[in-house]
Specification:
This protein has 393 residues and is of the alpha/beta class. The chain has helices at 11-21, 31-43, 54-64, 82-89, 108-121, 140-150, 203-212, 227-233, 255-265, 268-285, 320-329, 345-349, 358-366, 378-392; strands spanning 47-51, 72-75, 93-96, 127-128, 153-157, 165-166, 169-170, 179-183, 196-200, 217-218, 243-244, 291-292, 300-301, 307-311, 367-370. Strand 2, helix 4 (82-89) and strand 3 form a beta-alpha-beta unit. 48% of the residues are buried.
């Protein structure tokens, strides 16, 4: 079986993890800060905050932006459920913005129209979560302009997009959003096993994110105390002192994971370059088949987490399910990304209905994710294309 995604683990990665396992610190040592600083430097952001997974990152991003009961978060239906669930964890309300039919990202036109309607109704969102689907950035300049006009926060869900670029800058540089979230699940561009990171340029926000991931606890004695603090604390507190200042969570990343992440980071550009080569090769090899290949906005340079085709169903005799099952039977580990969130049973019980976001629903009916990973060989890709060609003949 050729999987749709697969991690790329080197001897250096194994050595990095082994070094941590034989050290004194398996968690809360120096491997975490090294990974945070390394990825922040790569992206051009001021602060990186590593967490246990990207869902945790989305959750504390919302908490740090004071999203709560009575507030509204908007995201897209074409995403994993975590992009919407993070609002519900905070007691807020979720709504969706339909996708652009070419990029499959949040439609700027749909967002602008919905914002105008929401303003008239007095129901503007507090947070908007654009999702950089498949590794391609959303149109962030336009979304930022709308945020400035309607005064909402932006959390970029860049779980697919580490290593991607927008208008010549790395995704995650923080120039056009409050927070960016990355994922390091094994099928993503780089992996820490499970793991995520938040990037931000706001010092106060970074500080709050840091303690929200660790029970809401700060350790004031870690920095040298002033003379007054020493006098006031000498009878009560010492270097052991810690204070819980908010109700936080245990969303920390271990040193084992962080060491793997730092080692993977060394090869991030190589991983992305190989994915781009494979995506361009798919474009060429699939050009004569009755499928629509992914369209790339000229402002973007995708990290290519996924390569999704859309079947031109009016030109083929088979259903999407028949094509999918035939590819699986041929040893091709295709997948589908994503079932629109608003059609999930849980969200249906919240009042969402099929038909509310037609572009996302139309996309879903046609989509198949083909295998794409950095260790994929040309021969494996040829096998995928040959199997698809035979099935669609």
């Amino acid at each position: 079986m050729i999987p749709y995604g697969r991690q790329d683990i080197s001897a250096e990665d194994i050595d990095a993890v082994r070094d941590v396992l034989t050290s004194d610190w398996l968690t809360q040592g120096q491997a975490g800060p090294r990974f945070e600083q390394g990825l922040a430097k790569y992206c051009g952001a001021a602060h990186g905050i590593a967490v246990s997974n990207a869902t945790a990152a989305l959750h504390i991003a919302c908490l740090a932006l004071d999203l709560g009961p009575g507030d509204i978060l908007w995201t897209v239906p074409n995403t994993f459920v975590a992009s919407a669930n993070c609002a519900l964890y905070c007691g807020a309300t979720v709504d969706f913005v339909d996708i652009d039919p070419r990029t499959y990202n949040m439609s700027v036109a749909a967002l602008a129209e919905k914002l105008a309607q929401a303003e008239a109704a007095g129901r503007l969102p507090k947070v908007v979560v654009p999702v950089h689907f498949a590794g391609q950035s959303c149109e962030m300049v336009e979304i930022r302009a709308l945020a400035d006009r309607y005064r909402f926060h932006i959390v970029e869900d860049a779980s697919h997009a580490v290593g991607g670029e927008y208008r010549g800058r790395k995704v995650g540089d923080g120039a056009l959003s409050d927070v960016t979230v990355f994922s390091f699940h094994p099928v993503k561009i780089i992996t820490t096993g499970e793991g995520g990171m938040l990037m931000t340029n706001a010092p106060k926000l970074a500080e709050r994110l840091s303690y929200l991931r660790s029970h809401g606890i700060i350790r004031p004695m870690q920095s040298p105390p002033t003379a007054d603090e020493r006098r006031s604390n000498e009878d009560q507190h010492g270097p052991w002192m810690y204070e819980q200042i908010e109700l936080g969570l245990n969303y920390r990343m271990t040193d084992i994971q962080a060491a793997l992440g730092s080692s993977q980071l060394v090869r991030l550009d190589a991983f992305v370059e190989r994915r781009r080569e494979l995506a361009a090769r798919y474009d060429r090899l699939l050009a004569k088949l009755p499928v629509t290949c992914p369209w790339q906005h000229p402002d973007t340079n995708s990290a290519w987490h996924l390569y999704v085709i859309r079947l031109r169903r009016n030109e083929i005799k088979l259903s999407r399910r028949q094509v999918f099952e035939a590819l699986r039977a041929a040893g091709i580990g295709v997948n589908v990304h994503y079932i629109p969130v608003h059609t999930q049973p849980y969200y249906q019980r919240l009042g969402f209905k099929v038909g509310m976001f037609p572009e996302a629903e139309s996309y879903y009916q046609d989509a198949i994710t083909l295998p794409l990973f950095s260790k994929m060989t040309d021969a494996e890709q040829d096998t995928v294309v040959a199997a698809l060609t035979k099935i669609l003949a």
